[in-house]
Amino acid sequence: MAAVAVSGVDFRRPSRGVVVALILALWLALWAVLKGLHTLALGPAQLTPLHQGLNDLNDAIGASRNTNPLFLYFFNEIRLVIDEFVILVQSLIAQPAFGRPLPLIGWLGVVALAAFVSYAAGGFRVALLAAAGFTFLGLQGLWQESMDTLALTLSAVLIALLFGIPIGIWAGLSDRFAKIITPVLDFMQTMPTFVYLAPLTLFFLIGPASATIATLIYAAPPAIRLTAHGIRNVPGDTVEASESLGATRAQTLGKVLLPTAKRTIILGVNQTMMAALSMVTIAALIDAPGLGKTVIKALQTLDVGTAFNAGLAIVVLAIVLDRVTTAAGTRVERARQNRNPLAAKVRTGGLIGGGALTAVAIWLSYTYVWAAEFPSDGEIGGSIAKGVATATDWVQGNLSGITNGVKDFATLVLVDPLQSVLTGSPWWLVAAAVVAISVVLGGVRAAIGSAVCLGLLVATGLWQDAMATLASTLVATAAVMVLGVVVGVWMGRSSHADRFIRPVLDAAQTMPAFVYLVPFLALFAASRFTAIVAAVVFAAPVAIKIVADGVRAVSPTTVEAATASGSSAWQTITKVQLPMARQALVLATNQGLIYVLSMVVVGGLVGAGALGYDVVAGFSQGQLYGKGLAAGLAIVVLGVLLDRLTRAAAARTGRA
Amino acid sequence: MTAQEVEVDPVGAGQPDPVISVRDVWKVFGPKASEVPKSPELCALSRRELMDRTGCTAAVRDVGFDVAPGEVFVVMGLSGSGKSTLVRCLTRLVEPTSGQVLFEGEDILAADEKRLRDLRRNKFSMVFQHFGLLPHRRVLDNISYGLEIRGVGKAERAKRAMEVVDLVGLSGYEKSYPDQLSGGMQQRVGLARALAGDPDVLLFDEPFSALDPLIRRDMQNEVVRLHREVGKTMLFITHDLSEALKLGDRILIMRDGKVVQVGTGDELVGAPVDDYVRDFVRDVPRANVLTLKWIMRDPRPDDVLDGPELGPDVVVRDATRAVLAAAAPVKVVRDGELLGIVGDEEILAVVAGQEADA
Asked: How many CB pairs under 8 A join A and B?
């Protein structure tokens, strides 16, 4: 039975590859003949009726915002509540308020409060880290911006948890609800972050509300998922024991489920916090105040020094938030192990003393200017920016031979040919080829999905831009997969390598997407290639981890059997481990594509052009608003197309 | 287990009323599960056929039994026989599809949510295979959990918990967390939690299957001791026949959700109802289980009837020495009436394992 199945695979797999190769060859041949025909090109300032229609819709909504009941009683109410809430948090730490020239709590108070909260949640070490980190933000000369980012992040996280944890509990308790909510969460997370900013401004205007809601959409899923996961993983015996003793449902929830799942829920809070920070910086595109705005402005003027300084501040903030919430998670465990009464006393004392000190610091920062406004004497931000600018100049002056060589080589050999095939072919040829490949990889249903997506792409009027973006995405994904397989196999085979590389990958994943653009901008200046490299670096950690886990999951007995029959390491990898980790490889490709796509789009800020540029331009120029919206739509469609295609291929592989 | 208790026949007249009466209980999982017990046609199908016909799994099929006050009643079966589902049906942790579960005459299946909670809080307690402890609470707080949800005050909770801590031999571990204890000690916590609420009935769902053999024996002795000391009614689920014989006053053997046989240990060994039970008890050391009444024979004319007298419920092992030492066969006597005699031959047949299958 098994032998038959295996031989079936052997027979079909190469044949599928051959068919795809044939389709590609035919495409190339036709491209050579039909080059430049029916390419659906559209100039940067040209609009289609759809774009114009979206512009009109925007105007119509703007005009009816204060008359339409849907807005009066729904969207506007939501906007007002969220705005009020965010402004309240901002007035505490970030913005002048209540007739004062400064926020209620000045820098000294915020630093003390951050340290105190970190001590209470995590411990002494993270308290030190938090104090040092926050002080550093001030020294960078970015106190106000950092506090704006922090205020927005915290408000979004609070709202996300307010809704996310109850929803997560529900999803953990009810299988039916979990089944409904899971695809919604999948969708919320796979949609490129960039995309929902513009539609949100349509309903909630530009401002804190839109930024917060965008952040919510992106940041709430991890909290919901992990809460549900934690609740679900409470051992059945424990829940039954509680019920058998006559606990009510509320008692079982409050005394058994939540405390047992606490650690996982805190992990969810951590992920939500990191996602929120990442999104808040991107929300700068719709005028969210804070560090993201500084980065974007600097990126647009190609001021690498300033971008680096602000990017560094984002990284510092990310590290502090990540460490503190992680420490809060491990404390739950540690508190249990530690039964030393002295330690408990020290902690109580620390909490009381720290609380008193914090109160004094807050009072000082409320009352005195020196404690409220971060002193500008010791500022090092300027020197950081200048140093980086100098270094950048030096790199661009002296290493341009190397960096330009790499850039030109990759662009000429990889990106340009692919892009010219995709953008130069008649649209119907590309569509036919993609549908044909879909049939081969995923069957008829996948082909129908692809056809619908392609039709939508044509309808957005941005076909050629979409093809250019697709070219960059494919090149970057290929690079991600090369990295993923090489490093992933290494990590999967050597626990040494895993132990060293995994923390690096974890750290890389907590960084907001934006930050990745800065160093590559310094190296490669503004170009498509810069965006591609940033996307590769952004997406590689996910792909590497999935491949490593897949290789690791291959049964050790099978590997041992291969070794015992005399396979070399190379044979073991190519004939046993990689084929058995096939599912993981496909999943890594899928995730790699989604991550790359979302980053390639952000690359619109640094000269990547195409859809990303259309979106960015839509934010800044009124008459391009509709086009930006359509570009966002095109990105989603592209994402859905790639996602569905890889999933369908994966299902096929799984079955075979 | 002992001879006196074997005589208890809970349904018989003049006996104490049963604590728990289970009548025609069905538990069917699957679509339209409630239709199955109503249809005589479906009831007659085997589990496999039912699955193919309706897509339903019948975990418990038409089970009925009585448990007398103070009795240790063991339900035994292999995995998948439905015994864990059955015990959960008693307090509706799993809702039975049909049937009746009477506790002191009250139908538990008819109880509303509040009454059911009351019963669970005050009358029943359960010990679980994987302990089901709360990892974030110390031993003492785990034990007093049941009291806490009843709304008992903190001081009284602690006092009561300390009492049961002593009772189950956990003294000195009150402040530990579950993950700092061995499996055996964790199950003591589970036992203490069950005892803390002073229930009338203790339910055990394979409580010792996850423990290694030596500790399992300790815990079995612990249950025997506790039963002697607190005298509660116990319903014990196990897949281990020697555990069943050791603990159970009466044993119910389940197979594919159905009752195969109910009886005392010596009844199962001495008079198995079918090949399944016979196969099951084949390896039991018969001398430890069978009593004299199972091996005695009628006196023959040439027998000398001046040997010593023994009761019919004396276990063979305990009688061996007396029978072999006596010059004449032992007389099996109840209330002065001669029931039969047991000679060297009968004893040796059991001890040496040569007795023909009954």
From this structure: 72
The one-character DSSP state at B297 is B
Give CA–CA dist A385/A382, Å, rounded: 5
Structure tokens at B316: 């063979």
Q: Pairing relation of β-strands B57-67 and B20-29?
A: antiparallel
Q: Percent helix, strand and coil across chain B, each rounded to 5?
A: 40, 20, 35
User: B143, B234, B231, B229: which is closest to B190 by C-alpha?
Assistant: B143
Alpha carbon of B15: minimum distance to chain A alpha carbons (Å):
30
Whole-number Å distance between alpha carbons of A31 and B167: 86
Taken in order of first residue, the domains within chain A and their CATH numbers are 58-379 (1.10.3720.10), 398-424+465-655 (1.10.3720.10)
Is B134 in contact with A262 (Cβ distance < 8 A)?
no
| DSSP3 helix / strand / coil % (chain A, rounded to 5) | 85, 0, 15
Instruction: Compute CA distances A557 → A1, A488, A553, A563, A570, whole Å.
Output: 21, 20, 11, 10, 18
Tokens linked to A294: 């500084």
Tell me the C-alpha distance between A282 and A299, whole Å: 13
Angle of CA points A447, A27, A585, to nearest 5°: 55
Residues A271-311: tens digit of each pLDDT? 899 889 888 888 888 888 889 889 888 887 878 888 888 88
pTM score: 0.78
Distance from CA of B179 to the nearest CA of A (A): 10
Report the distance separating Cα A404 and Cα A398, nearest Å: 11
Q: Find the length of chain A.
A: 656
- Which tokens go with B114? 């509040």
Q: Which tens digits make up the pLDDT trace of A600-656?
A: 777 777 777 788 888 888 877 777 888 888 888 888 888 888 888 887 777 766 544
Local structure of B95: helix, strand or coil: coil
- Out of A174-178, A592-596, B15-19, least confident range: B15-19
* A241/B contact by beta carbon, under 8 A: yes
CA distance B290 to B3: 11
Q: If residue B75 lies in a helix (H) or strand (E), which one and from where to where?
A: strand B72-76
CB within 8 Å: A237 and B118: no
Q: What ipTM was reported for this prediction?
A: 0.77
Answer whether B134 touches A (CB < 8 Å).
yes
Instruction: DSSP for A456-517, please give it.
Output: HHHHHT-HHHHHHHHHHHHHHHHHHHHHHHHHHHHHHH-HHHHHHHHHHHHHHHHS-GGGGH
Contact A222, A275 (CB under 8 A): yes
